[in-house]
Amino acid sequence: MTTPSQTVGPYLAIGLPWEDGPTVVPEGTPGAVWIRGTVTDGAGDPIPDAMIETWQADTAGRFDHPDDPRGRVAGFRGFGRCATDPEGRYAILTMLPGAVPGNDGKKQAPHIDVSVFARGLLDRVVTRIYFPENAEANAADGVLGSVPGDRRDTLIATRTDDGYRFDVRLQGEGETVFFDV
Questions:
Q1: Whole domain around residue 67: which residue ranges?
Q2: CATH code, domain carrying 121
Q3: Model pTM greater than 0.85?
Q4: Is the pLDDT confidence value at 114 over 60?
C-alpha cells in the first residue's frame, strides 16, 4: 500500500494567514510600496494555495530582532505573510529595506528574503527580492553575484506604478533562483 507524499500544502490557508499578515506596514504609511506577484508551477499555471512569507530590514538596514548584530531596533515588524488567491496572486505592503551587513562585513544590497510554501514541495523554497534602482549595490552583492548572470533577473523586481512586481516560478523555463539555506 502506498501513502500520500507529505508536502507543505495545500492546507496553508488553515491557521497560517492572519488579518494584517500582508501589511508589514499599515496602509497610508509614508513611503510604503506594494510588492505584488503571481506564484506559478512548472507549466506556468497559477498556484491558488501557496503562501509567501517575507522577512526584511527596515529602511536603515536594521532588524527588530535580538539576533541583529548591531542590536535590536524596535518598531518595524519586518515580517509579512500572504496566501495566494485563486489566480495565484499575492500582495505585501512594506517599505523598501536598507542595506544590511553580510557575514563578511561587506554591505549586502537592499533585499527582501522570501519563503514560498506550496503543495508539492517537501519544504519551503527560499529566494530574495532585489530592486532595480540599486544597480550598483546589486552588482557588488556577494549573494546576487553568486547567481549565474543569465538567471539574476529572476531575483530583481520590476517597478510598477504603486510598487513592484515579483513573480515566483517554481519550475521550468524562467524558474526563480532558490537558495539552499
A1: 33-169
A2: 2.60.130.10
A3: yes
A4: yes
Q: Does residue 15 fall inside a structural domain?
A: no
Name the nearest CA neighbour of 39 among 161, 139, 149, 121: 121
| Cis, bond preceding 110 (omega within 30 deg of 0) | no
Q: In this structure, what C-alpha cell is assigned to residue 10?
A: 495545500
Residues in a beta bridge with 65: none
What pLDDT score was predicted for residue 142? 94
> CA–CA separation, 118 vs 120, rounded Å?
6
Q: Which residue has the cell 505584488?
A: 36
Using CA atoms of 73, 76, 78, 82 in order, give the dihedral in degrees to the nearest 10.
Answer: 160
Q: Residue 49 falls within a domain, yes or no?
A: yes
Residue 171: how many CB atoms within 10 A of its CB? 13
Ramachandran area for residue 162 (φ above 0: left; ψ -120 to 50: alpha; else beta): alpha
Dump pLDDT digits (tens) for 13-37. 555 666 778 999 999 999 999 999 9
Q: What is the pLDDT of residues 142-169, one digit of tens each?
A: 999 999 999 999 999 999 998 999 999 9
